[in-house]
Amino acid sequence: MSDRADASPRGIDPRGPRFAAGITAVLLLIVVFLGLTGLSTAQTAEGWAVSAASVAQRFLDPAFLLLLATTLLFLWGVVSPRTAPWGALYRTVVAPRLSAPSELEDPRPPRFAQGVGLFVSALGLALQLFGMPWALTIAAAAASIAAFLNAVFGLCLGCQLYLLLQRAGIVGRARPASA
Question: Which domain of life, per UniProt (predicted)?
Fold first, then answer.
């Protein structure tokens, strides 16, 4: 979620978060596929397979493990966006091949969006551990759609939520007009 201008007080290159969202969307789409073909959505003669499975079996489900890895990447993006893997990859491999961005954006909304992704994916993980059918797959699908919209169309749903909450005075302070 970060880019080469991350340390600048003026803002970040908006292409960095979009690059990270593209990779994240692909990872989450794989989680959705694994969830649709795995423990989360399977049924047995007794009912849902995930409800009958032990906590260890739920944890070792491939969809769970990949969503766990993605959730940890979201956490990394929230805690230290400068060192997050997709941002570092963008800064070192992609950004040097591009022209300078025409404008920079406030880093707070993309960071908040990472937190929203963290919340959604962690909720899916928790519900999977509690044996809730479809929860992991639905959470991964929702996060994948949001990441896809950001990567392809530049529509960051988490950023829009941040701006809405900022206008309501719930998060952040308005940036000075001169920034």
Answer: Bacteria
Chain segment 130-167, per-residue pLDDT in tens:
999 999 999 999 999 999 999 999 999 999 999 999 99
Q: How far apart are CA 80 and CA 150, in angstroms?
A: 20
Contact, 13 vs 3, CB < 8 A? yes
Tell me, yes or no, whether 5 lies in a domain: no
In a domain, 2, yes or no: no
Q: How far apart are CA 76 and CA 22, in angstroms?
A: 17
Residue among 58, 60, 69 at smallest CA distance from 24: 69
Q: What is the pLDDT of residues 79-134, one digit of tens each?
A: 999 899 999 999 999 999 999 999 999 999 999 999 999 999 999 999 999 999 99
What is the domain range of residue 35? Answer: 15-167
Q: Are 14 and 159 in contact (CB under 8 A)?
A: no
Q: Structurally, how many domains does the chain consist of?
A: 1
Q: What residue type is assigned to position 123 of the chain?
A: L
